[in-house]
Amino acid sequence: MATAQPQVFVYKGKDKQGKATQGQIKGTSLMLVKAQLRKQGFVASSVKKKAKPLFSGSKPIKPADISAFTRQMATMMKAGVPLVQSFDIVGEGADKESLRELISNIRDDVASGLSFGGSLRKHPKYFDDLFCSLVEAGEQAGALETMLDRIATYKEKTETLKAKIKKALTYPTTVVIVAVIVTAILLIKVVPVFASTFSNFGAELPAFTLFVLGISEAAQEWWLVWLASIIAAFFIIRELLRRSPAFEAAIDKYSLKIPVIGNILYQAVIARFARTLSTTFAAGVPLVDALNSVAGASGNAVYRVAIHKVRDDVTTGIQLHTALRNTKRFPVLLLQMAAIGEESGALDDMLEKAAEHYEEAVDNAVDNLTTLLEPLIMSVLGVLVGGLLIAMYLPIFKLGAVI
């Protein structure tokens, strides 16, 4: 039987001293809330559910918020603060109302006797299977504070890596979008002004000018269709990525072949693989189960298939570094470090060192990409805008030469 979720109620009335008071209280039903207020000595004149605002101002919970929550919980528990009290302290310090509500719900579940891992599994939107499994492993081993510290480090490193990838992709994408918008404005609004002037010349226009005027006429007539097509393509691709594993696999496969960007994505996948496997293996999760979690967290369909193959090989008794080599998807450095880790019995430490190496490589590659793209992008913008200006002024220059 499902347990009713607590709701927020607003009350007005008088306290024990007869002083008018009002406030908020959580409860599963109106009757229970009134009984709770009576026990506390309040004489309630009005108790009702708190109305939800029409337009909620609460910001959505992001992965970075979950990372910060995990780090704060690890710090509280390492300091010896009891689990339930840790939720109270961390929840009070949360900036977002939605995050405070999430922490409050988890706290109530834990206080009612549910395990920490079990309470997290009720919120799969924010806590994936890997996160919940690691917390459950920590609870079972009696080392929850240590496990939370490892999870916090893992989440922080993962979010830092995501931020680097986002940085690598955002800058060129933004500049390309700006370039397209500027070019469209020039073609639709500026070029037609010159076109009306050229119509009175009575002379043949240069081929380059005629070419630009033709593009301008097409843009004026079809710009709405082009815009609608771009928006429709965006939504179609997004839905295909959600619904079609084959399409997602194709995108992931070809994204790794993009010059410069593909190498950054490749190194990021390797870093994520090494970091996740190191964290799960250090937590005492069996290697086969750890590889299952790593496959789900790989972030790339090509490597998800490869990791599943590695898992199948390891299940049959093949060593990890040999199984990794058989896929022909992993770099030599990672294979060597995995082999050394298996021989020395320190696989988690060697994988962590490999993760740090590839995370640093991603960082350097992103910095180099930004440095290389700046002059290239400026050149492209110069060619686009300068080309349009030259096309428009070329007839004027020729006319001046004739005169």
Question: What does the model show?
Answer:
The protein is mostly helical. It is 74% helix and 6% strand. The chain is built from 15 helices and 3 strands. The protein has a 3-stranded antiparallel β-sheet, covered by helices on one side. β1 and β2 form a beta hairpin.
In short:
The protein has 403 residues and is mainly alpha-helical. The protein has helices spanning 30-39, 63-78, 83-92, 97-111, 116-121, 129-141, 144-198, 207-243, 245-255, 261-282, 287-296, 301-315, 320-327, 332-344, 347-402, and strands spanning 7-14, 20-27, 43-49. The chain has 15 helices and three strands.
- Give the overall average pLDDT: 82
In DSSP terms, counting alpha (H) and pi (I) runs of 4 or more, how many helices?
15
Q: Spans with pLDDT under 50 lasting ≥5 residues?
A: none
> Share of helix among residues?
over 70%
Alpha-beta classification = mainly alpha
Q: Which strand-content bin applies to the residues?
A: 5-15%
- Rounded to an integer in angstroms, the radius of gyration calculated over CA atoms is 30 Å
- Note the gap between the termini: 93 Å
Task: Please count the beta strands (DSSP E, at least 2 residues each).
Answer: 3
Biggest β-sheet strands, sense, barrel: 3 strands, antiparallel
Order of helices and strands: EEHEHHHHHHHHHHHHHH
Q: How do the strands of the widest beta sheet line up side by side?
A: 2-1-3
Report the principal-axis shape.
Answer: flat
